[in-house]
Write a structure and sequence with these properties.
By secondary structure, the chain is an alpha+beta fold. The protein folds into two domains: 2-45; 55-244, no CATH class. It has helices at 2-16, 18-45, 80-89, 125-128, 151-158, 200-209, 237-244, and strands at residues 58-61, 63-66, 72-75, 93-108, 113-121, 133-136, 146-149, 167-168, 177-183, 196-199, 225-231. Strands 1, 4, 5, 6, 7, 8, 9, 10 and 11 form a nine-stranded mixed sheet that branches. A hairpin with an 8-residue loop joins strand 8 (167-168) and strand 9.
């Protein structure tokens, strides 16, 4: 009986102060919606890159640049040779994979011209990350002028036909590219956004052809390369960081 009276009293108060009650209810509904939205965003962020093997052991090397004016800037990238040196000199580093974000342009075949964003990488890409090939071979990332396409890019270029073994041109490059593989659809959400992978060997060959200064020995260029390291199980990443510094 007491509970029934309390409910009636509450309803009577709400009815007698309609405007004030409506504002309160609207505020409550809005705050609950915002909280649910934030929780959904947090949950979504934890769903990225969960399909890679041993995700808890994969780390990206970042750079903090200290300027002469006392300011500092943080970058998700790091010098290309750092990954190689880390793999050769730090016993806890099991695997190194570079992703160089300087491969983009327009792919052309006889019928289509398609803009793309890509990455230079090595065969270790398939050991560190969980991307799978639908056709072709991961060794395509070991030779110059060889490409691996996403399934979407392969379909855009070649329709339902076989892509592996076909060739395309990319203006600005010395040779045609041969399609060496096509990826399966990504098995989950990922922060890696690309249409195609080219071999680091291509980047090295192009630098030689153009007599340019490549990334391989350039410690000052920390803008283009994402260096990923997989550490051995049981490794304390803080110890690795102190060794790197």
């Amino acid at each position: 009986m007491i509970q029934t009276n309390n409910i009636k009293l509450a309803l009577r108060n709400i009815w007698s102060h309609k405007t004030f009650s409506a504002i309160n209810l609207l505020g409550l509904a809005l705050s609950m919606s915002v909280c649910l939205f934030i929780l959904m965003l947090i949950e979504d962020s934890f769903n990225y890159d969960r399909f890679h093997p041993r995700t808890q052991s994969i780390y990206r090397v970042v750079t903090t640049a200290h300027r002469v004016n006392g300011n500092s800037e943080s970058y998700a990238t790091s010098p290309y040779p750092f990954g190689y040196v880390a793999q050769e000199n730090l016993s806890a580093v099991e695997l190194w994979t570079p992703l160089v974000a300087r491969f983009n342009g327009t792919m052309q075949n006889l019928e289509k011209h398609l803009d793309f964003d890509g990455l230079y990488t090595t065969p270790s890409f398939f050991q560190l990350f969980g991307f799978q090939l639908e056709s072709g071979s991961e060794e395509a990332m070991a030779v110059p002028y060889s490409l691996i396409l996403t399934d979407k890019m392969a379909h855009k270029l070649f329709g339902d036909g076989e892509a592996v073994g076909k060739t395309i041109t990319i203006p600005g490059y010395a040779q045609e590219f041969r399609i060496g593989g096509v990826l399966k659809p990504f098995p989950g959400k990922t922060h890696l956004d690309f249409d195609a992978l080219a071999s680091v060997a291509t980047m090295e060959t192009e630098n030689v052809n153009q007599n340019g200064n490549g990334l391989q020995d350039n410690w000052k260029d920390y803008y283009a390369t994402y260096n990923y390291l997989r550490l051995k199980d049981g490794t304390d990443p803080n110890q690795i960081q102190s060794e790197m510094n």
